[in-house]
Amino acid sequence: MAVAIDLDRVIASREALEKVPAKLAHRLGVLPVALENDTLIVVQCDEDNAAGIMQLEGQIGLEIRVAPARRPEGVEKAIRRYYPESAGTGTPLALLEELINRAIQIHCSDIHLDTESGRALVRMRVDGLMRIDRELTPEAMADLVSAVKVSSRLDISEKRIPQDGQLTIESLGEEISMRVATIPTLHGEKLTLRILATAATAAELSGIDNLGMRGQHRDMFLSALRQAHGVILLSGPTGSGKTTTLYAALRHLRAPGTSHIVSIEDPVEIPLDGVNQVHVDSERVSFNKALRSVMRHDPDIIMIGEIRDGESADIAVKSALTGHLVLSTLHANDSLSVVTRLANLGVARELIVSTLRLVIAQRLVRRPCPHCRRLLPCDGPSADAFRLEPGTAVVEPVGCQLCGGGYSGRLGLYEMVPIRKRERELIMAGAGTDAMADHAFGGLGLPTLFQDGRAKAIEHLTTLAEVRRVIYLGEEN
After folding, report:
1. 14-82: CATH homologous superfamily?
2. Which of 83, 186, 332, 391 has CB 3.0 to 4.6 Å from 22, enough for a Cys bridge?
3. How confident is the model at residue 180 (pLDDT cuts 50, 70, 90)?
4. Rounded alpha-carbon distances, angstroms, from residue 11 to 68, 80, 131, 225, 267
């Protein structure tokens, strides 16, 4: 049975798209996604449209193979996304709209406009890695940068200092929100557009079950969310999915409708019904000022986008002490380093043990494409590094027209440590991270990031190369 094509993850190839004229695609309700020799693979709005498929074969002179769509109701919207009915006019604003549409097609999180010596590049980050989308002339890039700055209400004449702004464009009936940042470089201004909210993003990240947590981690996370008060802290580098996990938690917590939930974010990335979201910025409303104000509005649950300094850490911990459930992120290398980081920010150990409920570290790895992946036996250095039996079957990326590089989509790797009686005793005794790790991962047998990644590679949910990319293996040996 053919693997269903997930249009929220798959990237339709340009080669396939060029085989079907836009008018024909719209009229027949078909979207070409890949070309294999003389066979065009398509998905369609109407699964019983045999006559339309015969007409398409006759007009383009290729054999057509219909693949099932994971969400047939999304095919029509995907056709409109790949074949916009209104063509661009050649203006910088039209180019900007084309780039944003392209970014959404390929599930891009960031658009980079880079000016180099003698050339200008548009690069896009897909599944965490950068790829060059196209090259522009320096003149075209300058016009594009100006169009972005005007649309973002930035000072178009100021090119010597960094600027930050917000941009919203309507596309196919939904608002696409972006955070815009400029910075001067040796060869001109660089712009980065972070795509904050799309319907596909919201659907993909709708719940905890979509994050990639294994059973033990899911149970620990849900148990912590059931607490009446306390602090849950996530750690990890930029781009490791911390905010995504927080949003999934808020979606879970808002479901009964019996709690007053407030989030404090910079910026608000995805609008959530049932959550009072507060946008803060350093110039007018700081995190700390907003957090103090929120406490006067009788919240039950508070989400803080990031604990940035000692003051915000102190307010967050004392909020939990007075009967609130607080969720936030903190920059640390692993789960238990969160405790050390809180202490370094000046939070008293008595407050840490009284309020901390769960510490989490996470990373993001790419999923292998289900349409082209292959299984190979793992031997040699890789088997030794991951402590696998020689010959263990693991996934190797191949690459096809549906993915481009062997991967499609991402999932999380997790490391979690609940803070209970023994952990509180260790914290109060001033135990270091190594001593606490020996207890949590040695004594209790909780899985580390490495072990979670290894298990997911054995289950063929990711590849060994991806686990190696995001985790330093030397610490596990």
Report:
1. Type II secretion system, protein E, N-terminal domain (3.30.300.160)
2. 83
3. very high
4. 15, 14, 14, 36, 28
